[in-house]
Every structure is written in C-alpha cells, then in structure tokens.
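User: Last request for today: this protein with (2R)-2,3-dihydroxypropanoic acid, please.
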Amino acid sequence: MPEKVLVTREIPQAGFGPLEGFDVTVLSEAPPERGELLGAARGAEGVLSTVTEKIDGEFMDAAGEGLKVVANMAVGYDNVDVVAARERGIVVTNTPGVLDETTADVAFMLLLAAARRLGESERVLRSGRWEWWGPKLFTGPDVWGKRLGIVGLGRIGQAVARRARGFGMEIVYHNRSRKPEAEEELGARYLELDELLRTADFVSIHTPLTDETHHLIGAEELEKMRPRAVLVNTSRGPVVDEAALADALVQGRIFAAGLDVYEEEPKVHPKLLDLENAVLAPHIGSGSIETRDKMATLAAENLAAVLRGEAPKTPIKS
Ligand code: DGY
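Assistant: Here's the final one, the structure of the complex with (2R)-2,3-dihydroxypropanoic acid:
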C-alpha cells in the first residue's frame, strides 16, 4: 500500500514530482479550516504543510501514530511545534537556502519603496490627484551611501547586505553570534542592537521568530531609532510590535516602514492600513515563480526521503 501523504494547500506542480508513487491528498488553495485540516490529517504518514497551518500536538495526534514527517514548505517553522514532533518521533523539515535571494529582493524593494514613497505617490497618481512636479513633492531620504543595520545576519540577511553593497551602503549588523566570514566578505561591522538602532538609517529584520525575538522591536527600540530611519520586516510579524510601530509612524518618530509580514496574518493593524508612510506587502517575500517551485520541490523531496527511510536534505535540528 502506498504511504498516505497530505499536502495542506495547493502547491506548484513541481512539488508533485517527488511525491509520485504515494497516495497524495491535496487540500484547497485557501488555508483549510482547522476542522478540515484535522479531519484530513487522519492516517497521514507524511504531511507537506505551509506557514498558514498550525502543526501542533493536536494535529499530530489527529494524524495518528503513523505520522513520520512534517515537511514545511518555508524556511520559517514557527507554525510547527517541533517539541511535540520530537516527543512523537516525527521528523520536521524546512526549506532553507532556496529562497534567500528572492526574499532579499523583496526586502530591498520595500526599503526603496518606503524611503522614496512609492506607495503613497502611486496612490496619488492613480487617483488623479497628481497636479504638478514639485521641488518638495514626495521627497524621501536617499538610500545610496547610507548605513544599513541588519538584524539577523543569516542567509537572507547576507543576501540583503550584498544588495546594499551595490548601493554603496555601509553595513552594520546584530546577530546572536558574530559572523567573521560574513564580516570579511561583506565588510559588515558587528554592533550591539542598541547602537545599531541608534545609528542606522535603515533597519532590516531577518531573525526567526522565537521566544527571544518576539517583539524584539517594540516601543522602546523604535524610540531609539533616527527620525529619518526606515524599518523593513520580511521575517515574521511578531518580531515587531505592530501597534508600537503604527504609533511611531503616526507620530513621525521614524520616517517609514516596509512590511511583508504581520502579527496576525492576514489581519493587519488597522492603523497601519491608514498610514501613507507604511508600504505593506502581503507576505510575498519568497513569491517568485522559480523560488516557489524550488520550495515545493525541496519540501516534497524531504518528505519522500523520510518515508523511504532515507535522511532528508534539510531537517530541523531541534
Ligand atoms: C518562509 O519561507 O518562511 C516564508 O515566510 C514563506 O514564504
């Protein structure tokens, strides 16, 4: 009997290649309701999940004792309870390495758009309110030559730093541990978070969401930032206190923000929605056609490997 595999969302076709030979059930394009998800889990031996599904102990128990692997189609895996998985002997995998450049593109896109007021000015143009070119109209801070503070110098943070070098930016970073090789390669300088926040013109967040990084950037941290600073977040929403950020933007304590992720997706803090100085993308960081193909393929390869009794390429070490 072929092993039962549950794919929790419709994924790119590329992801189905490695799943050939398994008994595959695919749920809907939209995130499944919790009840539907738990019902569909029953009897699954492998699950290919995405960031929108909460894969916790309850889900694992609903699947039953045959569940061997949860292959998350994302580099972040805060939606998976890895402790519950370990207790049940379930392997968890993610998709690192295939989305770094693509996500860095979006971080840099948000950085540029927020600084140079693209969202706001485009809204004016489209609504027919653009009346003239103006010497002071839609001006924002330069990006080139400024100081970029990267919080979390992992693969994606480093890819952002490479882009910043092309803009002649000075790169400083904060990370749990020093990264001597990246310092050498990127000319990046390590700073304590406090100094980074106080001195950077742009701050881009690239930390995973953990208990330590929850609300890493809150009212106190935003208070330290420069009045013309721009904050970019493409990691996970809860790393930034969204209400505090909205307040800081309303009061002009920082210049602008570019966000791809939110505390309670798909909800966005209502104040942010009203702000001209917030550029808001709907979690599209890894959303290039090529990268989503690679993510789906890697997740499926990981899943298939575990079900065949082989080592997956990118297991999470918990
Ligand atoms: C990830 O890979 O963690 C992204 O947020 C999903 O695209």
